[in-house]
Design brief:
This protein has helices at residues 2-6, 27-40, 50-53, 68-74, 81-87, 94-123. By secondary structure, it is mainly alpha-helical. It starts with a helix and ends in a 19-residue tail after the last helix.
Length: 142
């Protein structure tokens, strides 16, 4: 479930529509989005091996003549990081957004944990596990 929620690009599994809002609560999703934004923002790629990518140089296969423009249209060659990000439904500059979302989630989860622990402390629901005159469960050498 954690991987499904963190997979914003659909690489591992398709997330059902009713669970898509829950993905915004995933630290994995925001970490992945930030990592992809940092990696591909401003990147440029060269398509020098278009013939190899389309099977043109394979033995026993007919040579395929394809231009870089045709390769881009077919999705064989992606020349910019912005195109990679757009195919993953991300945009350049998503690193700040991802970092801010992670900070908010961590603050929320830590605050919730603190409040739950404080509520348990005041309710007296815990039993005292150790009494002053009890011996430790593991004998210590004296």
């Amino acid at each position: 479930l954690s991987t499904m929620l963190g997979d914003s690009g659909g690489l591992f599994a398709e997330l059902p529509d009713f669970m898509k809002p829950a993905a915004k609560l995933s630290l994995i999703k925001w970490g992945f989005d930030g990592c992809m934004g940092a990696e591909f923002t401003g990147a440029d790629f060269h398509c020098d091996d278009v013939a190899e990518l389309t099977g043109g140089n394979a033995k026993g296969k007919k040579k395929v003549k394809i231009s870089v423009k045709q390769a881009e249209e077919l999705g064989v060659c992606v020349r910019t990081g912005a195109k990679v990000l757009s195919q993953m439904d991300l945009r350049e500059g998503c690193v700040r957004e991802a970092a801010a979302a992670q900070a908010k989630l961590i603050a929320f989860f830590l605050g919730t944990t603190f409040l739950v622990l404080k509520a348990q402390e005041g309710s007296g629901s815990r039993e005292e596990l150790a009494h002053p005159d009890d011996k430790p469960p593991i004998p210590y050498p004296s």
